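Structure Section — protein described below
Tokens — whole-number codes for backbone shape
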Amino acid sequence: MVGDMAAARDVIEFHNCYIAPFKAIGVTPILEDYQARQQGGEGYQSKGAFGSAYKEHLSRSLIQVEADDRSAERGVLNVRLRHKKTNFGVLVEPFDVSLSFSDEMIVATTRGLTPADRAQEQTLNAVDRVVAALQDGPSYPDEIAEATGLARATVKNNLGALKKAGRVEITGEVRGQMEQVRLADLVDLPIKEKSAKSTSSASSTTLVPERADPETVAELFANLPGWLTRACLQIITRS
């Protein structure tokens, strides 16, 4: 860029002079930048573009690319993409891309992250990271904190919320003052709330018997009520 990349005034002037004209005619510029070197104790995910913070402030969307495994002999490079900022819409969840290089072409293949990888991703919220850590099996709170990099207090608070929501349950195993937890089977969760109509007595003139109130999520989807079926068909038709 032109000017001092560490000076906010120069970064703003660069965007106004060289980037804004492209936006004015409907072109979306893509800028490639570099991160500062990692210092002791720093993580790659926490790094940003080298220089003034206005480099990121003036960008509508920000994607961090981290190189992972590579093999020059096989011509393969694996990278992880993290959507760290967006001014419109929602962030795309991080994913991996495997690049294969040959004399004829470059092939890009995408793949989702493993639960262990998701647990470490700072672009995801704390609840999703705790759930990802538990997808590999039952764990104690300190193990979840180590797997996610979250503070123990944060893990404890999120586990409390997940237990209340019925998404996490206690296994019965105890270590010290910590209880081991695991993900609950959502299919067997009871349906706590029932409509007033379902609790009212059936009319003596009813010709078609009403369906019995489902007790679990599995029973609900095995015998969908008519109103839900019609709503789904309307959504499919509009799409």
